[in-house]
Design brief:
73% helix, 394 residues, mainly alpha, 15 helices
Length: 394
């Protein structure tokens, strides 16, 4: 077994600990998805094995994508980032107008012939962070200049997040915060960072204020505004009496019950009871199912996996001789970890419901694909660093 494991790792270049983290996250996903989809399988009159096999297929596809993307020299991703970002903008516009509406949100495009759907914001998020790393690395000589560096870097962020926000506000906010953090690491002038952060906080505060000032009848004509308002109300005050409020509050109550049943330590794979009550136990609230079946220690270990992955990304940044590689690794790594922390914070009622999935663990299609590509790009940077270190020692 030892020889076979070593043989496998000879083909997997880059940071071996990141590869190991990916494998462990996929293992958790297999266990959690198989358990949490039993009620869905019953409703659809199919076996739970169908969803398990689908998740295994997505995991295999994800690992293959990671493998091939990590073999590409990360420097090529600079040009690819430019192309991807330019493609993502018309796709986001198309999704807003003609996208498939699922769960009261138009976030998906249905591919013709095959009939598969993918979430365009997943592509846009990956493309923007890659493009941001490219622009920051190119403009290092003028990085403190407002016109030459700050504005050209800010405009793509604003455009992308504005196009995502109407149907997926939580992803837009996550992407904006990640972008500001990457700008900070890319040595954008602190006064510009503080100005942007201040404007962002003011804009968000005005937006939340308008949600509660504008009449409900008017809000119904503004995208998902009523949903955002209900989620904030439920988080702050609990159930308010409206049917949609009741549905939101029901999710949080069932998640709390699941966490309470998990206790401190437990090993009970497939033994979750709240999966029968939670509306989306296999995606948005899969972390609650993990805690119910494996206890708080199991939940803490999952948090630890994401934090360990972030630590390995920071090591890559420290070792990377090029600004583009460092910003690429930290940008993609930070976005994935922030997304994971938001999902887990929602499950334990530290944040309002967002609809953000748990990377590589929640059941999904396009989210698994684009997350795997992000991991592969990070591993590409790591592989390049290892090759340069080996060349220096030779």
């Amino acid at each position: 077994m030892k020889l076979s494991v070593n043989k496998v790792f000879t083909y997997l270049q880059g940071d071996k600990m990141i590869w190991l983290t990916v494998m462990l996250l996929f293992l958790v996903s297999m266990l959690a998805v198989y358990s949490s989809t039993s009620t869905l399988a019953y409703k659809m009159q199919v076996g739970s094995e169908k969803y398990l096999m689908k998740q295994i297929a997505m995991a295999v596809a994800g690992i293959m994508l990671m493998f091939f993307t990590h073999l590409i020299d990360y420097k090529y991703y600079s040009r690819i980032a430019q192309l991807l970002w330019l493609i993502s903008i018309p796709l986001l516009i198309y999704t807003m107008i003609f996208g498939s509406r699922i769960n009261d949100a138009s976030r998906w495009i249905t591919l013709p012939v095959v009939g598969l759907t993918f979430q365009t914001s997943d592509l846009a998020k990956l493309a923007l962070i890659m493009f941001l790393a490219r622009q920051l690395s190119i403009k290092q000589d003028q990085i403190t200049d407002f016109k030459e560096a700050f504005l050209p870097i800010l405009l793509p962020i604003v455009l992308t997040t504005i196009l995502i926000a109407p149907e997926n506000l939580s992803t837009a906010l996550l992407l904006f915060c990640t972008s500001v953090f990457v700008m900070f690491l890319g040595r954008i002038a602190m006064k510009h960072i503080l100005m942007l952060s201040g404007l962002g906080i003011v804009a968000l505060s005005i937006f939340i204020l308008l949600l509660f000032v504008v009449p409900e009848t008017t809000l119904k004509h503004v995208s998902r505004a009523p949903t955002w308002k209900h989620r904030i109300e439920n988080f702050a005050h609990g159930i308010r009496g409206d049917k949609e409020d009741a549905d939101e509050d029901f999710q949080m109550q069932q998640a709390k019950i699941a966490i309470a049943k998990g206790g401190i330590f437990k090993i009970n794979p497939g033994g979750s009871e709240q999966k029968n009550f939670l509306p989306h136990p296999y995606s948005d609230f899969i972390y609650a199912i993990v805690i119910e079946e494996y206890g708080l220690l199991g939940g803490a270990l999952l948090v630890g996996l994401y934090l360990f992955f972030l630590y390995r990304c920071i090591r890559i940044v420290i070792k990377s001789p090029k600004a583009f590689g460092a910003l690429l690794a930290v940008g993609l790594g930070t976005a994935l970890v922030i997304q994971a922390m938001i999902n887990m914070a929602v499950a334990v009622n530290l944040m309002p419901v967002t609809g953000v999935t748990l990377p590589l663990v929640s059941m999904g299609g396009s989210s698994v694909i684009f997350t795997s590509i992000a991991f592969g790009i990070i591993l590409s940077v790591s592989r390049n660093i290892e090759e340069e270190e080996n060349a220096a020692l030779a």
